[in-house]
User: Fold this.
Amino acid sequence: MSGRSAGGNSFIWCFMHLFGCLRFAKSNSMSNVDDFITNLPAHERRIMEVLRGLVLDNLPDVRERLSYGVPFYYLRHRLCYLWPASVKGSGAREGVVMGFVRGHLLSNEDGLLHLGKRKEVSNVVFTDVRQIDREALVKCLLEAAIVDMY
Assistant:
């Protein structure tokens, strides 16, 4: 007989074995944003790289992590996110959605952001890198960082 006895111990052994397998699977999953972006379709990957660069270059203190399966950016609170259409829940048929969590508080003087039927989160959908208005987007990012202080 192996070291496992009948009864309760076999349950514990099965549980520990299953837990070990789950832990192993989790550690081998996409654990960072670089892996996430690398595994996107090429057209979304290019858009994500530009948008991510704008966020990281203009908000040096921002923290980046996967949340809801997509990259979110934080200062004191959730600031914005990048949600490719290929990831369920984006609401877009193609491209990448850039959302601002407290977008309803932004001036949106360039008219870049859309609230739609939402009360707080505003977003813009980019289907091509050439659509990205870097100047307007940087204004939104900087304003969102100011709003995030309060």
Q: What stands out?
A: The two ends are 65 Å apart (CA to CA). The CA atoms of residues 51 and 82 lie 8 Å apart.
